[in-house]
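Researcher: Let's do a round of design. I'm pasting the structure tokens now; please hold your answer until I've finished.
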């Protein structure tokens, strides 16, 4: 479903049914994987596909860790996963460091793991700012059920801004958003494919958030699995199964153990400890285990890495913003 800036009046009225073009969510979601067939994933000019960490943080406003956001770069194009606070400025920083695909005017495809604020607070920025500085392509966003309503509400919130830009003659195509919702998959399921990349989604386990997702990207001869927020699951093991890079959320087990019982219960039901992550990686056998969404609870990165190493002897890194893997 494409949501046009021209339809902001509909968004103000919150006519969600009217904007769905009369199709059921199931029918629209089932069509996600029906992308044009391609010759297969490749990287332009033989360049290796890579994973760029745009934000390695959490809801905690740490100045050196922006909100969760990463980009798979393949074939000269960037494919975002999540859009936490600071995503557009981190993309611009990566561009200035030489990752040409992260020129914000060219970012036009993104995937959401779930709709919690730390993963989506940069969504309005992703819709608006690249268009302000010259994006002309429609922004295509894939994610869990609820993403369509979130998009409509954001466009409604910025209706006056959009109308002012229209009145001054802006090309409004860059402000348009095409939303595809992904129902919780029972197994690894293809949700997107083009000449550069194949993207498959799997169910994550994030407490009461039954729609949370993780993603596997196959591009340029490499495979990247992004966990999103989750406890350890068989679905993630199946998605990785020797993948080149497993990017997984983590918290420090010792640090959490010093917190109040309610905090401990919440995080054990929603997230993965460093010790658990080590156990999971020993089964998934990634080429590189990379941790993001780092909840330290007073622990250093070295202490978190030591907890992982207590169960896993493979290559491991605790990521920082603007790392390239």
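Researcher: That's everything. Go ahead.
Model: Designed sequence:
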């Amino acid at each position: 479903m494409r949501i046009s800036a021209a339809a902001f009046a509909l968004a103000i009225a919150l006519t969600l049914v009217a904007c769905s073009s009369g199709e059921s969510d199931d029918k629209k979601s089932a069509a996600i994987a029906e992308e044009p067939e391609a010759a297969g994933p490749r990287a332009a000019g033989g360049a290796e596909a890579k994973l760029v960490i745009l934000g390695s943080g959490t809801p905690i406003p740490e100045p050196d860790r922006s909100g969760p956001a990463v980009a798979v770069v393949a074939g000269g194009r960037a494919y975002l996963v999540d859009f936490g606070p600071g995503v557009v400025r981190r993309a611009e920083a990566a561009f200035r460091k030489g990752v040409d695909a992260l020129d914000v005017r060219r970012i036009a495809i993104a995937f959401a793991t779930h709709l919690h604020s730390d993963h989506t607070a940069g969504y309005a920025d992703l819709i608006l700012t690249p268009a302000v500085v010259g994006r002309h392509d429609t922004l295509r966003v894939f994610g869990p059920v609820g993403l369509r309503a979130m998009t409509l509400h954001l466009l409604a919130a910025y209706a006056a801004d959009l109308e002012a830009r229209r009145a001054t003659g802006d090309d409004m195509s860059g402000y348009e958003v095409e939303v595809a919702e992904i129902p919780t998959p029972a197994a690894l399921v293809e949700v997107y494919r083009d000449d550069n990349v194949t993207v498959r989604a799997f169910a994550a386990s994030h407490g009461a958030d039954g729609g949370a997702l993780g993603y596997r990207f196959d591009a340029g001869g490499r495979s990247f699995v992004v966990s999103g927020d989750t406890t350890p699951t068989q679905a993630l093991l199946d998605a990785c199964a020797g993948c080149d890079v497993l990017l997984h959320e983590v918290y420090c087990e010792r640090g959490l153990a010093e917190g109040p019982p309610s905090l401990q219960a919440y995080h054990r039901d929603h997230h993965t400890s460093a010790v658990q992550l080590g156990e999971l990686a020993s089964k998934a056998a990634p080429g590189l285990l990379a941790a993001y969404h780092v909840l330290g609870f007073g622990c250093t990165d070295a202490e978190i890495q030591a907890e992982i190493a207590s169960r896993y002897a493979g290559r491991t890194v605790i990521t920082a913003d603007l790392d390239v893997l």
